[in-house]
Each structure stands twice: as structure tokens, then as C-alpha cells.
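Rotation project, supervised by the postdoc (A.L.). Task for the rotation student: set up a whole-complex structure prediction and record inputs and outputs verbatim in this book. Inputs entered:
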Amino acid sequence: MVSRAERGPISDWFWTIDRYLLAIFVILIGTGFMLSFAASPGVAERLDIDNLHFVKRHALFIFPALAVMIGLSFLSPRQVRRGALLLLALSIAMMVFTQFYGFEAKGSRRWFAIAGFSVQPSEFLKPAFIVICAWLFSEHSRHPDIPGNLFAIILFGIVVALLVAQPDLGQTILVAIAWGTLFFMAGMPWFWIILLACAAIGLFVSAYFVFPHVAGRIDRFLTGEGDTHQVDTAREAIVRGDWLGQGPGEGTIKRILPDSHTDFIFSVAAEEFGIIFCLVLVLVFAYIVLRGLSHASREGDEFTRLAIAGLTMLIGLQSMIHIGVNLELLPAKGMTLPLISYGGSSMLAISITAGFLLALTRRNPEKRATGRQESYHDAPLGAGQV
Amino acid sequence: MNRLLKRTRQRLRRRMGVPRSASGAAIVVDGARKSSGHQTRNRIILVMIGVCVVYAVIAGRLVQYGFRDLATVASIARGSELLASRPDLLDRNGKVLATDIRTVSLYAQPHKITDPDEVIEALATVLPELDARTVYRKLRSQSQFQWLRRQLTPKQQSEILALGIPGVGFRPEKRRFYPGGPTASHIVGHVNIDNKGIAGMEKYVDGQGLADLAAAGLTIEQQLEPVRLSVDLRVQHIVRDELAAAMQRYQAIAAGAVVLNAKTGEVLAMSSLPDYDPNLPAQALEKDRLNRMSAGTYEMGSTFKAFTTAMALDSGLVTMEDSFDARRPIRIAGHTISDFHGKHRVLTVPEIFIYSSNIGTARMADVVGIERQRDFLTRIGLLTRMQTELPEVTKPSQPKVWKKINSITISFGHGVATTPLQTAMSAAAMLNGGLLIPPTFLPRSEAEAQTVARQVIRPETSAAMRYLMRLNVEKGSGRRAEVPGFRVGGKTGTAEKVVNGRYSSDVRFNAFLSAFPIENPQFVVLVIIDEPKPAEGQKSATAGLNAAPTVKAIIRRSAALLGVRPSFGEGDAALLVSY
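Outputs recorded:
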């Protein structure tokens, strides 16, 4: 225990951090590692590599992930903003680079290889993009003469263009909904809401006609015909798990479930640990989102408020889409379960998200002190100050 | 929470308390910020509600899945069906002929198998005889259930379990096991892979309602009351053993024998070689494995003369003292009927019998007439399908129209083909006082036999037949069948087989029809040997040289087991005067 009386970076951090969120994030990362034992040997076997290959890699990624999350949680809101801007610039550059030098897998260009690791820059883009958009929206609401909203829309356009170019419809939809929610919370007029909703529907419909694989997936989801092997298998796994699960290592359906260690980890969890375990998992994610949003609603600072809400929604939406696909509530769409699924880029990117979130939700007694807060708020803010 | 709200309120109040005069612009900005903050808070609450709804839907879906049952696969038979019991089959002394043992069968769920090659490779280490191509096809099918191998041994099961192949499993099953192997194969029969009786007494048991019960789903796992057969496993073994030895000694293509209780119709032993092992049912389908004793029909040859003689005596038109001219062969319709052991003189009835004279027998039949001959053979059950429990029973064949020539050839056993078991049944009637008792494979007491028996000849005729049969062993062709103390009586039969439409003189079907102890026959023993060759040191292969010694061997070894007491001396004398 760090004494309250002591003042120092560590004790400040310890007494200001949201320890519940921190504990949940750490527990979820641990749960992900546990589920890796259940979900990944089958995949490794199909690839004809060491059965524990993915478990080992998962373990390898846990330490940088924890370090990144905890390290970033030390940042101040301003440092978060700066870090996000840097990360955004970097990830956009990497995504452009990927378009030319990345390797193609499963029909899309999302990864590039560096030092033996494959990196998916779009994962890192998401938290950075959300934080920067939150900043742009907050600037606009503080100084209506700054075209923050317009910048946010332009930035959104750039990001969507890059994602569609890969193509990565899942991330596009995730980013679009997160951005839309952020915009909504930032006080978007209802006229704009309807307009954007129509635009979103229009885009979605055009995606249906432009991308045959999207059309195929949606058709299969709506009609249940065609190759529904993956979702059928996922359903069988969950139903077989029943309330209490088959027990660790007792799953059999998981072995034939494609992408069981990433996009369908939830079904594996259901087969081995049961539906009650999954309900707890859902509750945990719901708790994260509601706690994050309630932090946001209590927060006085506009940027911090929006950034917290946006990052929370990013985690929340990703979990909703992942679980929704696993439960056949949504068309099949590859989406990892935050903090749990295997995937180096995904794990690190989620750690960044969680780290930013922890940093922003830290109680800041200085901020609350009237004078300082006023001075902080009234300090002239410009584009240069980030 | 309250404290937090209070603090916020205080903070706002303090903020509002800033003097207006200080900065007008600040107030405007502050107000705008406040209203925007208020709006954001409302929006956040809306989003929270939305989030709650989505997670609630997810939780609802999970609960719905929780109440869902796994799709059941209709093609998998219910466990109770697979474990359905069959009654044990026992011999008359309670020895087990057929019983159920628990086994496991290997199945695959192809939709759960990702790499069929790997599965086949692994299974091949335990089941090398598995056909890789068939299994591959099964595993590649999109079905949910495929049998891979039925009825494995516990060792095979544990080896497959040790391989840890996902997508394959075991279901317990009952398997029929025949401890005696082929010993009583044709009587016991066998079951198919689904444990349904398809031959022998197994099929009979199914026909008695078990199959109906199974079809109605009323099978039970617990032990059923065993079914006891009339067979004596010890005697059955002796019979099969002696037949096998005879087959080898005479290089015959087939051999068969039956031991029939002359007073009850119970079959004590019946064997037909080559036979099969009911534990390997596929063997039953191989060539020549049929049950010759009830499903094969043969022209019985000279053994038939016993029936002709009985017919002649029973008609009252012929007596034991009558004589018939056997000096010259009978020529009729382009055929010549001559004698094998020709005496070329006038023969009495006993002489005709012991010398096995075709001419004399033909003349006796001629006395009786065609119609009465046909009626008689029908009456003693040689022209109709025999009634017994075994499903494998063939209908005897006879000429469509009986002409003189048919009557003559039938009188010495050519022209009518009967099953050996049927022949034994009719022979029993000739010797037991005239009662025709359908043969049975289930225990039957003499009292029960009386209720199904039919008097077909007079007791006096039967007594005469016993005398003639005994005489034939004492002085005729059946000498090699004599077992001291058991007083065997019998008639040989050496029939020429039809080869390419003509009777051949070297291809024979031999039989020896006998009964013992002859003064009060308890058992009828019939041995047939198909296409015997002369044994080493012998020039000929007539029935007296091979079928008769085989009967002797069977009686010698089994008489004591059958409960017949040997007696020496007076018995013969008593018989000789009794007819």
C-alpha cells in the first residue's frame, strides 16, 4: 500500500486511478490468457504448428500489453492528447504504407511485417482517432469559431477511406459507430443526426452492392442459407456448453470452429465454461461501459468527457459486435473481443485504449480546485496547444 | 455519489457567483459551456440506455441458447435399442450355445472432423483392416453420424481412446457370441450386425415375438429367460467331429448327420459340413455352407427301400414270406433296372432288403401300385415340406406325373429328392411303432410327442422293419455299423448322382439310415456323405464302407451320453422271434 500522505508520481497515480476499471482490465487480460489454452490449440493444430504456439505468443504479448496500459495511465489529459495525435499520424502513415507494402491475407491488405511480427495499423488508429475527434469536438463547443466539427468530419472521411481501401468493413463500421456516438454525445443537432444516419444507411446499402462478400454475408445472415458453417458451429458450441459448460479442455466443437482464438473466442468460452460464465463476461463489459460513461457524465472538462465516452464506447462496441456475431445477432464479421482475443496488434491497441481511458478517468484533485480549474479552462487554447 | 453531486453543485454555484462585472464575455462562454455540458450529460445518459438495451439483448440471447437443446440426430438408434437383449440359447443340459456380450461400436461425427486423413491414419494403427477409401468417403460426408466399425473389443476401444481422436466416439452395443464356434452352427444360426436373428434357431426366436417387440420399441436391457434347445452339445460335438474325420478320410465334398430321438422327435445333434462359425456370419454366405440336412434335398438311394418295404408290408399285399423274381433286370421305357449285388434268383422280402435288390424292391412297389405308393410317401411326410422350427427347410421334389418308370425308380430312392432330416423323421416312424413325429429343436417329452404324432403304419409293420434293419446290420451291407452292446439296425444307400443329366457310376451320394437299440429304438442316426472316394486300402466307396462306419463311430461315442444302456446277449434273440 502506498500511503496517502506520500506525494509522488506512484502514490498520486495509485490514489487517483479508477482501481475497479484497472482491476477489471487486468482480470480480463488474465481471462483471455486462460481462454487461449482452450481456443488456440485447435487452430494451431490445423495450421500444423506447435499446439501451444498461440498460447506462447499470447503470453508473450501480455507483458507489453500490461506495461503499455499501466504506463499510459500515468499520462495527464494533455499528454493523452499529444500521444494520440502522434499515434494517429503514425498509424495513418502506416496504413498508407500498408496499402503499398503490406501483405495480403484473406483477401484484404491489413498487415505489414516488421521484425517478425505482423502489425495491423488500423487497430492502433482507433483509440488515437477517437481521442483526437473528442478534442476537435470539444474545441468546437468551447470556441464555436473553430471548425472542430468540420475537421472531425474530414478526419473521419480520411480514416474511413483508408479502412475501406483495405478493405476492412468491420473496423469501418466500428469506427463509424464510435465516431457517430461521439458526435452524438458532443451535442450534434438532431437534424445532423438524421442526415448522418441516412448517410450511414446509404453507405451500408452501397457496401452491400459494391462488395460481394459483404452481400454474401448479409444474405446468409438474413436467410440462413449458404455456407453458414462458422456461425452454425459457434451456435453448436454455445448450446453444447449449456449453462455450466463442458469443463476446461472438454470442448470438442471449438476444434472445428474457424478463428476460434480470435473472432469466435466467446463461443469457445461458452462451450468450455458455460453460458453463465458468458453472462458474467457480458456483465463485465456492460459494467466497463457504464462505469466509463458515468465517469464521462461526471467529468467537467469537455475534452476529457468526450474522450472518456469515446474510448469507452470503442471497447463497448467492439465487445457488442464480437458477441453479437457469436450469438448470430449480427452478420458474420471478424471482430476480436477486447482484452480477451488473441492478436498482437489487437491486444496492444486495446491496451492503449484502456491506458488512455485509465489516464483520463483518474481523479484529478487539482482540476477540482476552483481557481486552478478556472485558470485551466480560461487559458487561451489554440491549435498550437496540444 | 451524493457527495459528488453536492460538490458539483457547490462548484457550479461558486462559478455562478463570479461577479457579472468581471467579464461579460466570460459569462457568455461559461453559460454556453454549462448548457453544452448539460446537453452532453443527457446525451451520455441516452447512450447508456442504448448500451444497456444492447447488452440486455445479448444476455437474453444467451439465456435463449441456454434453454435450447442440441439437435438430435435421428439416424442414431436409441441406446436401449442397441442394448436390446436376446435370450441366451442353451443346450438340453444348460450349456451355453449363444449369449450376449457387451461391446462398443465406433462411430464418427464427420461434421466435427477437420482432417479425415489424420483420423484415418490414427485409426489404421488400431484397425489396420479398415478400408481407407470407404472411411474417407464417410468422414468427408456432411452427415452427423457414421458407423466406422461395429463391435470392437475392449482392447481396441482403449487403444482408440488413447489416440484421442476428436469427432469419433463409442456407443455400447450387445454382440452375440457363440462359445462353441461352428459346433452347432446350423442349428443355432446367427444374427446380423443389428442383433436380429437371420438364421437357425436365432431366427426362430425372433419369429416368436421378439422381433415384433423390438419393432415396437419394447426392448429391454435386462436378461431374458434363456431358450433351451433339444440339442445335446456333447453329442453334437461327437457328430461333427466324426463327420469331419469321415470327410477327410473319404475326401468327400460334404457330409452330414442327424441324431434324432425316435420317440419324441427331438434333434439331439445335427451337423452339416462344411459349416461356418456363427461368430463370423459372413462365412455363412460362402459357397456350400448351407445346412444340407434340412435345406438340401437328395435322392436318398437305397435307404428309400426301407420305406418301400414298409409300404409293401403295411399294405397287406406283401408279407415277409413272399418272394419276388430278381433273376433278370427289368427293362422299361428304354431303361434297364438291375441289381448292384445281383443274386440272379428269386429273393424273399428279407433277402431283397439285405441284398438291396433294386429289382425285388421295384416288384414290391409294383404290387402296391403307383397311387398307393404316392399316398404312402405323402403320409409318412416324404413329399411335403417338413414342419420344424428351423427356417432353413426345403420342400422335397417329386415328378409332376408319376409314371411306371417313376414308381420303379422311386421305390429304390431315385426320382424323389428329400431332405436328410425329413428322411430321418420318416425312418423314425417306420421303427418306433408307426408314429410320425415332426422333428423339433426344442425339448419335447414323450407325452407331448404323442399329441403331435400321427400313426402312419401299423405297429406290426414297424416290428418287421426293426427286424429287417437289424438283419441288414447282422448279415447285409450294414455290417460295419455294428456297435457291440447297442444293437444297431440300419440300411445303406449308395445313390448315383446325376452328372450332366445322367446318373454317374463314380459320383455317389451315400447314406446310412440307422436306429439303436433296435428292439426298442430310442435314436435314429442318419449319416450322409456326398461324393466320397475310396478310403486308403479300399477299392470301393459304397455306403457300407464309409457311411456305416461313421454311424458306428457316432453311436459308439455318444450312446452312453444319450443314456442308452448297453446290453449283451438276450436282446437279439428276443427280437428275432418277436416280429
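Student's summary: Confidence is low (pLDDT under 50) at residues 368-386 of chain A.
Supervisor addendum: Chain A is about 70% helix and 5% strand.
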